[in-house]
Amino acid sequence: MFQTFDVQTDPSHAAPRIARLRQAMLQAGVDAFLVPRADEHQGEYVPARAERLKWLTGFTGSAGMALIMTDRAILFVDGRYTLQARTQCDVELFEIGDLVGNPPVKWLEAHARKGWRVGIDPWLHTIAEVRKLEKAATKQGATLVPLHENLVDRIWQDQPAAPLGRVDVHPDCLAGQSVAEKLAALAGAIETAGASHCVLTDPSSLAWAFNIRGCDVEHTPLALGFAILAVDGAHRLFLDPAKLSAESRAHLENHAKLSAPDDLAPALVELCSHAAAIGLDPALAADRLRGLIEEAGGSVVEMADPAQLPRATKNATEIEGARRAHLRDGVAVTRFLRWLDLQEPGSIDEIGAATRLEDCRRAAGEAFQEPLREIAFDTISGAGPNGAIIHYRVTTGTNRALGAGELYLVDSGGQYRDGTTDITRTVAIGKPSAEMRARYTTVLKGLIAISTLRFPEGTRGRDIDAFARRAHWQAGIDYAHGTGHGVGSFLSVHEGPQRISRMGEHKLLPGMIVSNEPGYYKEGAYGIRLENLIVVEEAREIEGGDTAMHGFETLTLAPFDRRLIDPAMLDGWERNWLDAYHARVLDVLSPHIDPDERQWLEKAAAPLAD
Which of 65, 84, 112, 306 could form a disulfide with 108 if both were Cys (CB 3.0 to 4.6 A apart)? Predict the structure, then answer.
């Protein structure tokens, strides 16, 4: 299994750990200390060594930050994790704050005390973030204090070692572009930005630029490291040599000088002595890198990570790979949905369902001779009220049977060498209520609205997010997460800069893969989310129109639960889309499933009846 179901934290551990941290704060001369869920690369998925927030608070979500003061502690989480934080943390010890509406920077701006010294680890906060924190602290007469040692590390006696996952070569036949071509383009972008060098800090950019994949973090094929790219082609790559096989070493030595991670700081200092202008992405690079360069007398050029946009805009080879990955994933998920449909209510629990789904993915990968390399994230397998916890992770302590009259939400994905998948389906266990059917159909209307959308060049994610919510708002409901996130190509299941949300500032460009996942969550009762992955198509002329319009191609292939659809709530064009989608699912998957499965799918994907 790529996923375990062990209970990973205990809320009772937090109090003694907070007490020890406060003692360390006293010794360091700070009145407050920020503990983000981050590592030196600012990634969403971090190695066990960097799970400081989880170790300190008990919170296991992928986004959050704790502000520890001498007399209070606040855990800031976003809307996906509000319920989860309350169940995983000692609420007598931690206040639960709003990471989006009132994040730590706003809280400090309003509540920091005059004379406070607020400690941070500058490796764990970006340049842009530190600027905001400094401004907020200064406004209240407080001081932001970068520390040379992380205070959690000081008290975490059994902190895991840094990961040493093997690095593999990602072949050109899957990447669609050679390393030499990519590095030449990146060098041109760096020169255009006015820099002589640029530090790549995001392991996804490292993986993309050098056509490698690793296994330093769970579920995401990343090798943690840094690179200094040079306009003159004298690139350097900073990876632990223990991660490299003979093949990957030879591959990388063709394109860069290899060095250990500890050599990064001396390398930057040396470049500064030669008047290098070094590019850093203020939204991604650790503030400590800026400090190293400026302390050495160097010049920082603020620029976007030059690999981020080309990585996000998939080439034709990567898009075709995504289609193949979704074909085998569709077979796996459809086979799982059929199996689930044949089980008696109450006979299966959340762990059993998640285990079966992973088994289905493994079997489909083997049948297509493209093995499942990993799951894309811990499967969200939520029955009844657990489905209302947006990023629920089932454990042996929370495991629940799929009971009659309930809804079951399963959000899962696979990592294949040719693509990353992410799909959510919500299923009725037994007979659903009229309210469940109405809410499900509302969510489905949101998904169809995005699926059928046409939009002009320059449209951003925030411009279309409301289309997914229109039916929700008409019904007086909403959901506390974005409608869609970017997805990598055998990389992170959450990839920027593209996203469909109120904060989606980047233009949606051809080749970008995004999720389409509206939802509805009734606390203590049930959750509904429906998710397909879609890819932005090239703009095309519309007959009778005068402006070319982009659209979306749906990649995901699996039926929706027709028992939960109220046809009367769908307009004609919505029904047409759904019937056409189901017909495509049946047509594409049928050659790859057995007769019994095909018979089930024919019913599951049949046109809607009045």
Answer: 112
The answer to whether the beta carbons of residues 39 and 121 sit under 8 Å apart is no
* Residue 491 phi, psi (nearest 5): -140, -145
Question: What is the C-alpha to C-alpha distance for residues 340 and 327, in angstroms, rounded to an integer?
Answer: 20
Alpha helices in 342-427 (DSSP H): 350-367
Arithmetic mean of pLDDT over the chain:
96
Give Cβ neighbours of residue 76 (< 8 Å, ≥ 6 apart).
64, 65, 66, 67, 96, 97, 98, 99, 102, 103, 104, 107
Say if residue 275 is exposed, middle or buried (CB neighbours under 10 Å; 0-12, 13-18, 19+): exposed
| Closest residue by Cα to residue 419 from 497, 504, 310, 495 | 495
Q: What are the pLDDT digits (tens) for 158-172?
A: 999 999 999 999 999
Instruction: Record the tokens describing residue 521, joined without a space.
Output: 């969550």
Instruction: Give the separation between CA 130 and CA 229, rounded to whole angstroms.
Output: 25
The owner of tokens 């800031």 is 76
- The pLDDT tens digits of the residues spanning 41-66 come to 998 889 999 999 999 999 999 899 99
User: Tokens 């979306």 belong to which residue?
Assistant: 552
Residue pair 8/395 in contact (Cβ under 8 Å)? The answer is yes
Distance CA 518, CA 510 (A): 22
Kindly state the greatest CA–CA separation across the chain. 75
Over 550-569, what HEC string results? ECEEECCCCCCCHHHCCHHH
For residue 96 the two structure tokens come to 């639960």
**Going from the N-terminus, what domains does the chain have, and what CATH number goes with each?**
11-155 (3.40.350.10), 168-310 (3.40.350.10), 313-461+509-599 (3.90.230.10)
Picking from 498, 2, 509, 584, the residue whose alpha carbon sits closest to that of residue 326 is 584
